[in-house]
Protein 1
Amino acid sequence: MINRIQTINQIKPIFREYLDYMSQFSLINDVESWCKSALKNLHLYSIADDRYIYILKKSDTIIGFAMVNKHFRFNSKGLAVAEFYIQKNHEKKGYGRRLAEHLFEKLPGNWEVAVSIKNKSALVFWNQVVSSYTDGKFIKEWNASFNGYGFVFNNGLKKTF
């Protein structure tokens, strides 16, 4: 089951797990300060109208989440997948694809998904999901300052790439 949530309380435990996972892809000198900053940023999702959190549940337990905002690295407008996580013991079972496609269906328009070059499994995942979802109608761009790729597409009727 996938639901949009309005407050961050439900997501805090799994968000910390996500931060631990993501720390392997960045050079972080002070993990605790980095986590505190990320949790402070998470709070913005409770108060800003242009940010969305979707949770994925299995048997009433949150096993993943997606956060959407308008912080762009490759696009100038639309929506961006800001954070995306499926717990390790639930990976490669279709849950991530289901969550991603749910986002795209609920929020049509311009999209970008930015992925660090260091996160090889995410690059494979997003390439497969976006390619399948768009029937190959997307752009994969490199951004040196971000050190990663962006998957850019439109799932609305107004513009196609």
Protein 2
Amino acid sequence: MKRLLLAGGIALSAVTGLYAFRSVGQGSITGKVTPADQANAVWAVSGKDSVTANVVNGAFSLAVKAGTYKIVVDAKEPYKDALLENITVADGAPTDVGEIKLQK
């Protein structure tokens, strides 16, 4: 009986532990920047929260909570920074903003 209770307690703890690290309300924002080598980083800003990611071969991906974001692309000179507003991310769903063309 003690072994059964111990095994049940361990199993319950394991299941609880797995759900404790589950991402709730997690989504993502992906996209591409052109020219590919002219952006340093991309920021997603929502209220007081912000997330950043490096641009690798022109592509980026940001793991974010569900909500509405402003996307800022930090461009290298002579290009100008780019701004996208009102990007909506749904719970558990990826949001592709497509291609962001940097302007000089």
Protein 3
Amino acid sequence: MHEYSATWLAALGVIGGALVTVAALQSHPSEPHRHAAGQVLENPVPSTRDSVATGRQRYVFMCRECHGNSGLGDGDMAHAGGEVPDFTDAIWLHGPSDGEIFLIIKDGVTADMQPYENRLSDEDIWHLVNYLKTLAVSDR
């Protein structure tokens, strides 16, 4: 095989894989639903004051831009289009369990909410889950 052909085939493979990933993320249900894989995950990080503070710190640097200062879904980037969840309302679009929230952050669900598995450690994601749960209204 010619050297350029192999390079082009490799590039097409990478592009094709990226397109499949984006297509899969964009086809995620838009109505409230549950994730069985997340329902069985237990949060190994106790929701302590320190954990929530660490989660808030991660939120400020990684999430606030879209989800807003208070988790209302009104961050600066939210105005670019798409629907950004409000963490203070009674609806968890992808399930309310700690494990479901963890997987949404880690794996992503849409082209707008991409995976954070390469940007945050699992422990930091669990801290973030603990923080997000403090934003919820009391009747959840």
Protein 4
Amino acid sequence: MTDSVLAYEEKMWELFDVSKQGMPDLADAYYGPVKDAVYRDGVIDLKTKRLMSLAVAIQAGCKDCMISQTSKALELGASAEEIFETCSVAISMGGTLAWSKALVVADYLREREIIE
């Protein structure tokens, strides 16, 4: 991979910070009450919800989403094994396209030195 996934993640959050200054209503709506209601412990714990979101992100092919959900799952204590099992579920549903997108997750974990 020519571009660092970690560098991409940094650029992604920098853009959000700039966008929030320019579009506070949109940023507040996007990261506000709906996400707060969904991303909390409920019948399903928060770590599992983040892993579910990672599988959806892989299916959608959203690089920003894959990085963000992987990061948040790690913060909640997810192991590399749990993340790869989540990738496996996404791949079983999405085939080769999902497989290629899951490589972003592997590169991210490698750059964070979570895997070799």
